[in-house]
Design brief:
- This protein has one helix at 2-20, and strands at residues 23-34, 40-51, 56-63, 68-83, 86-99, 104-119, 125-133, 136-142, 145-151, 154-165.
- By secondary structure, it is mainly beta.
- The longest helix is centred in the N-terminal third of the chain and has 19 residues, at 2-20.
- The protein starts with a helix and ends with a strand.
């Protein structure tokens, strides 16, 4: 029932915004590293969504090899043109993760910046590069015990493309 509700809510969100606005769907790839808490470096691929009527950009991904699901919501509070079809942006946001191998759940704040490049006649294709600082707090179950999880130096870097439906 919860999965059905989530699915219907997401479809309603996408359909209601697309009825009145231009929106973009795309994919991004990147890598994320944590320097201190159980250091790691892993790659990811996301599905992204943006609308021209909202400063929010959403992304979700799954790391099948680690059984981790993450989601992010970023608010682009600065978006300035550099030249022609090239612009830069700065954002703050929130992220969440759920891991299933060794169960973990956490959330974190995000702050970062990126570059946008729009291509084609009506700017239908958006290419972008971004980096951010994304510390996480949460809990995890490791070897049967519950532990506090803090990842203070988590840095995701991503590049992607979105197609705008205008």
């Amino acid at each position: 029932m919860k999965k059905k509700f989530l699915f219907i809510s997401l479809i309603t969100l996408f359909l209601s915004t697309s009825a009145f606005a231009d929106f973009a769907l795309g994919a991004e790839i990147g890598f994320e590293g944590e320097l201190f808490y159980k250091p790691y470096l892993r790659s990811f691929s996301n599905v992204t969504y943006r609308s021209d009527t909202s400063p929010w950009c959403f992304a979700v991904n799954v790391w099948p090899s680690n059984s981790i699901f993450t989601a992010t919501a970023d608010n682009w509070f600065l978006n300035q043109k550099i030249d022609g079809n090239l612009s830069w942006y700065s954002f703050w946001g929130i992220s969440g993760l759920v891991g299933f191998n060794d169960f973990s759940i956490g959330t974190g704040a995000r702050i970062g910046a990126g570059i946008d490049w729009y291509l084609l006649d009506h700017k239908e294709l958006e290419l972008y590069w971004q980096a951010c600082w994304n510390p996480y707090l949460g809990v995890e179950k490791y070897d049967g015990d519950w532990d506090f999880m803090i990842m203070p130096f988590c840095f995701p870097f991503a590049t992607g493309a979105r197609w705008w439906f205008r």
